[in-house]
Amino acid sequence: MPTGDGNSLILVSSPATVGGFWSEDSGDTWHPIQPPTRYPVSTSLAGNHAHPQRWWLSATALPGAHESGIFRTDDRGASWKALKTGLPQGESFHSLSAHREGQVLLALTETGDTYVSRNGGDTWKGEDLTGGRPVFQVAFLGDDLLFQPQQEGVLYAVRDAASEPQPAVPLKFLEDGQFMSSWDAAGRTIAAVVLGSGGGLVISRDAGETWADPRQELYAGSVLVNACETGDQILHQSSAAAQFDGGEGSFRKVKRPGDTVAGFCQLPEGGWLTADRVHGLYSTTNWKDFKRAGVPASSVTALAVAEEAVLAGTETGLLRASLPVTRPDWEAPGGLFISGNHIVDIDAWADNPSLVWRTRRVDLRCEAERSLDAGMTWQARGAWPDAIFAVHIHPQDPDRVMHSFGYLNNGTEVLGVRTTADGGDSWTERDHGRFYLDFAADPNDADGVWMASYTNGLYYSADFGGTWEAKTDHEANAVHVAGRRLLIGGESIRYSDDNGTTFHTATIENSNGPLRVVAFAQHNEVLFAATASIWYPGNPPVITAGQGVLRSRDNGKTWHNTSAGLPSLDVRALAADPGQPCLYAGLHGGSVHRLPL
């Protein structure tokens, strides 16, 4: 959720983005916030208006990988200090909230316990501000603290929480038979969505001392509040419409950049910055026209460089940027949707990169689609009620395409490949008994395809998927051919110089525990590998985060880490630009990052 301050510094964080981003030019450029601890799976970020360069961050780490905790920076994330005095060792915190002027911090554990610091985080103690009630949501309202207990749809206020806390008292705005479904507070304003007879949007402009009558025309939905010197602003959202009160006390219908605005703040020069859970950040001056401000919200699961463009497939749709990428406002051909629009894989044809194929999961079906204009428009070339995975274009004939699939037929798994020889007019299904996560063409035989099948290992087909032979049972999430050398990525990187007859384990310098290599890329003679997080069931389970991007300068025999500057080391996709000396990495939690080569 974005928050702004009087010195035009904007902080952005979300549950899906580890760390966050900051901007000091109203969102024209963004700087990633590198988490202070290795392997975080979630973070909560808080700042204050009195000292814009001072932030606090709680980080929850993978069990056994690193200790969770709370940290402070006084230089906009360049360095961090671990805050430990008074905090339980290794505790995970659900949220971290700061008083507007930084006078008091409140850290909320997963179980709803509250820890408070009144000296900037130097020392903490477990203060019972809530009367023993486990807490679900909190907000500072001036020097007061508002909270909602985990098991109650009621708001409580702790007056003077920043100095001498008073006992928690319930705010009385609910009638018999009513309950609260959403609320937010900022400045001096509290807004709550009340359901039940006579309900609607209920507003207090004096920190809960008095309440206006319910606005019954604004029934159900959700509400956000933003503090502003000209009057606290309220955004009410429902499935039908969004209504905005700019501080004047009256609501008007407005547009949204996506399905739901997750947060908004007013920009110093005028206008607003809005955050959407799916679409990322947008700026607007009138709540009618929106301009993308970068920092996408969805995880990047596929990448490809098409003709003069980079294509990023996410769990909510496709993002596209013209080359060279100079601005954060990526296009979204076809739109983005909060569910049912997962771009699984993208493949551009080497001889004509304007021709691109992709696989996509759409609600309860999957589709294979083709683009003839580098991802601007797409043609449906087949749909099935099952799961489809990697896609591969024949290196000599763009009408010959293969994708992997899997479905249940009367309780029996059918797994294999579908192929087309006529650009998708007709498809042939072949049951291999396994699914594949990646394909690579055999440079010595255009019909030859290497097929990576995760824990099943590596397979080879000499007739474009018609038949197959097993090559190795080593884990294979990704496969790549570099000259005469064949590489597979799994729990390690292995290479073969005899067409897959024997494999050797590559050396990975300074590796930090188990690996999961999920993608390869190549630029000239340099190889790159993406590593993602691991979860293997067991007792105890094996859990570790990704180790970022690895690089090899000797054709895959030895690898070293080249992840400096990546805000997340959980990398899901790679793509090298053959026309520009750069590598693109798609991260879990959102965003594409570029490495100059």
SSE diagram, text form:
Elements: E1 3-4, E2 10-14, E3 17-23, E4 31-32, E5 40-47, E6 55-61, E7 69-73, E8 81-83, E9 93-98, E10 105-109, E11 114-117, E12 135-141, E13 144-149, E14 156-158, E15 169-170, E16 179-186, E17 189-195, E18 200-204, E19 222-226, E20 233-237, E21 242-245, E22 252-254, E23 261-266, E24 272-276, E25 280-284, E26 291-294, E27 300-306, E28 309-314, E29 317-322, E30 342-348, E31 356-362, E32 365-371, E33 379-384, E34 387-393, E35 401-409, E36 412-420, E37 428-431, E38 438-442, E39 445-452, E40 458-461, E41 469-472, E42 478-482, E43 485-489, E44 493-496, E45 504-505, E46 507-508, E47 517-523, E48 526-531, E49 534-536, E50 542-544, E51 548-552, E52 558-561, E53 571-577, E54 582-587, E55 592-596
Parallel strand pairs: 46-52
Antiparallel strand pairs: 1-2, 2-3, 3-4, 5-6, 6-7, 7-8, 9-10, 10-11, 12-13, 13-14, 14-15, 16-17, 17-18, 19-20, 20-21, 21-22, 23-24, 24-25, 25-26, 27-28, 28-29, 30-31, 31-32, 32-33, 34-35, 35-36, 36-37, 38-39, 39-40, 40-41, 42-43, 43-44, 44-45, 47-48, 48-51, 49-50, 51-52, 53-54, 54-55
